[in-house]
Structures are given as C-alpha cells and as structure tokens.
C-alpha cells in the first residue's frame, strides 16, 4: 500500500500549516523513483487517503455510477449487481455514487449484501462505497444533515459510510461550513468513516481546512483536456495532504479509439453523442480547442497506446493518475451494458516514460487555458 504514486517509493515530508487557532502538522509527499524500489500489483492498485486519524484505503481506479441515473440505457437491477460482483472479484472494488444518482445507492446496498453472503471475508474487506450528498443550499441544521446521511446509510445498507463527499452549490451561502461541521460530528460518532468534498475550488478548500474540518479528498473534473486541478488545487493538496479523486478522466468515452479519425461536423458520419456524459464532455472539447484539435490529441494518445499495447483510455487514465496529488480516477460503469475490466487492470501495469509524458503535455498545452475560460475546479457548476 502506498500514497501518491503506488509504483514508486515515496518519502514523506512534514510541513507546518497555520490555521486560525493553532499550528498542525500535515503530510505532503516528494516523488522519488529509485531503481531498487519495485511495487507489487496490489500496491500499484491501492491508495490511502487520509487526514489526521481519518483514513481510507481504496482502489486507484474507481467505478463511477453516474450512469445509473438515466440517459445511458435501461439498467436491469439483478444484472447490474452481477456486474458489480465481477468488478469486485477482479479487484476493482471501489464504487462511487451519490444521493442524486437514481438507484445507485440502492444497487450498492443489494451488492454489498450479496458480497456478505456469497464471497469470502477478504473480498468484503476490500469493498468501498463512496457516496455524495448534494443538498440545496438551505439552512444546515444538525437534524437536517443527520437525516439525509441516515437515508444514504439505509439505502446502502451500511452502519458507517466509507466516504461522504459533500457538494455545495452557492459559495455566497456559508452554510457549507455548518454542514461540514455536522458531518465531522457524525464521523466522530461512527456514522461516516471519512469526510470529503466534491467540486470545491481551491479558495473554499483552503477555508475549510482553516476551519479544521478534516476532509481527506476533493473530487474534481480532471483529464488531459481539463488540467485545471494542476494549476492551483494540486499545490494546496500537496501542502496539506488532501488528495484528488478525478472524474471525467476519459471524458465519457471521448478519449478512446471510437472517436479517433471522426468528423462530427458531418451528420451521421461518426459515432453519436448519445449519452449525457458524451454531450457534457463534448462541450469541454469545444471550450478547450474544438474537434480538430481534439483529433490531434487522440492521434498522439493512439501512438502512445500502440507503443505500449494498451487502449487510448488506459493511457488517458494513467497520465492523470501520475499527476501530483491525484489518488484515484473515476471510470464510469454502464452496468450490464458494457464492461472495461481488462482495460482498467492494464492501467496498473502501464508505465508512461518521459517521452510519452512530454508528448501529452505538449499537445494538451495547445488548447485554451480552461482556468481562464471556465474558472477553477467546480466553477462550471456555479456560473450564472
């Protein structure tokens, strides 16, 4: 088990971070790659996110369940749970969901019960359920926060949530601090193992940490096209030990051979953008540089993928996992409709060399600066 870069040795360094009330020690990491250090496959695939005494071991590639919320095709419950079991059996046992992702939490509850009944204890020990709470920005009382968390606990059929990732729509309303303090109390009472964030920007993450709220991670959009997290967020994360969990890393499937050498300006000539995620990330492509420039990126990634005998998506995920402060990356699972177990497992054995990384950095930098176009992490959800 390692932190930051599972395939290399890591030297932990301690820095002093001053908060409003006291000075505390936090952990950062210095990346080292000594030739004599060889990680096992288990070390390459797992990571620990932590803050103080709070910690959670999870798989570095996370099964994203946004696709259960509708728009990707009809999900059969029993078939979906069967697929979740196959992922867990393959070692891909970390699942990400949310209270607003349709039946995602309910599916997890059925799944975890089948694991308890049908699998040995060592499989159950590796299963992780990361969920999100996405409330309207109303008054965050203790009873309101607790009642919502209890709903997720009941749906997922767990006494303690492995991770609760909190989202907030309106920064002008400082109620997010009240909510996070109540979530911290619920953590201390054993109802949540780790408290985390989703789609918070760097400024608000700093404020949250200054208020001594022990978040372990922030889930943000991050891909070769969207490198915003590396401009401000990653530096704060490295200073404080908070990790990044990324989504949109394969851009809903746009970063794949399926879209290589295609021209979407010709009606019906290429693959259709027939899912909410494809439509969402096509808008990101347009903001970054357009389809023609995206084709240049795919050609570079395809050359690297062929060199290593893997897929474009595998290269895209590994490049982001290699970025500073990134603990894990999300790949959406269309349960019962498609599977990518082989591609995901190849991420853990892939080693991108300096030539690969330089090529990707060069073509990525040709696009527009999305920090200027969109703003910091999560700002796309808060623009008028």
UniProtKB/TrEMBL annotation:
Any one GO MF annotation of this record? oxidoreductase activity
- Flavoprotein as a keyword? no
Q: Name one Pfam family in it.
A: Aldo_ket_red
The NADP-dependent oxidoreductase domain extends over 61-363
InterPro entries according to UniProt: AKR, NAD(P)_OxRdtase_dom_sf, NADP_OxRdtase_dom
State the UniProt keywords alphabetically.
Cell projection, Cilium, Flagellum
Domain of life of the native organism? Eukaryota
| UniProt protein name | Flagellar radial spoke protein 5 isoform X1
Question: What is the species of this protein?
Answer: Spinacia oleracea (Spinach)
């Amino acid at each position: 088990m390692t932190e930051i870069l599972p395939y290399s040795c890591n030297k932990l360094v301690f820095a002093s971070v001053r908060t409003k009330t006291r000075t505390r020690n936090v952990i950062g990491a210095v990346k080292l790659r000594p030739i004599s250090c060889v990680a096992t496959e288990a070390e390459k695939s797992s990571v620990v996110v932590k803050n103080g005494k709070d910690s959670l071991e999870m798989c570095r590639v996370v099964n994203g369940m946004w696709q259960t919320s509708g728009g990707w095709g009809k999900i059969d419950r029993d078939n979906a749970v069967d697929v979740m079991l196959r992922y867990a059996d393959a070692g891909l046992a970390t699942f990400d969901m949310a209270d607003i992702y349709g039946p995602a939490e309910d599916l997890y509850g059925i799944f975890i019960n089948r694991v308890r009944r049908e699998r040995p204890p060592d499989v159950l020990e590796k299963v992780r359920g990361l969920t999100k709470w996405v409330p309207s920005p109303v008054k965050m009382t203790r009873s309101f926060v607790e009642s919502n968390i209890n709903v997720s606990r009941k749906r997922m059929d767990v006494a303690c949530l492995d991770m609760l990732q909190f989202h907030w729509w309106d920064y002008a309303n400082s109620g997010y601090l009240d909510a996070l303090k109540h979530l911290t109390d619920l953590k201390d009472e054993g109802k949540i193992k780790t408290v985390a964030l989703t789609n918070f920007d760097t400024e608000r993450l700093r404020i949250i940490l200054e208020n001594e709220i022990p978040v372990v991670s922030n889930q943000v959009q991050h891909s070769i096209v969207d490198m915003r997290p590396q401009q401000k967020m990653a530096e704060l994360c490295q200073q404080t030990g908070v990790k990044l969990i990324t989504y949109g890393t394969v851009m809903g499937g746009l970063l794949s051979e399926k879209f290589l050498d295609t021209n979407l300006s010709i009606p019906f000539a290429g693959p259709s953008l027939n899912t909410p995620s494809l439509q969402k990330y096509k808008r990101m492509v347009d903001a970054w540089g357009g389809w023609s420039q995206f084709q240049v990126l795919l050609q570079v990634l395809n050359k690297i993928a062929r060199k290593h005998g893997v897929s474009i998506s595998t290269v895209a995920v590994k490049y982001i996992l290699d970025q500073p402060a990134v603990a894990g990356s999300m790949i959406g699972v269309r349960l019962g409709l498609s599977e990518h177990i082989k591609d995901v497992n190849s991420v853990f054995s892939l080693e991108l060399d300096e030539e690969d990384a330089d090529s990707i950095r060069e073509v990525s930098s040709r696009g527009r600066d999305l920090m200027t176009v969109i703003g910091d992490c999560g700002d796309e959800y808060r623009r008028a």
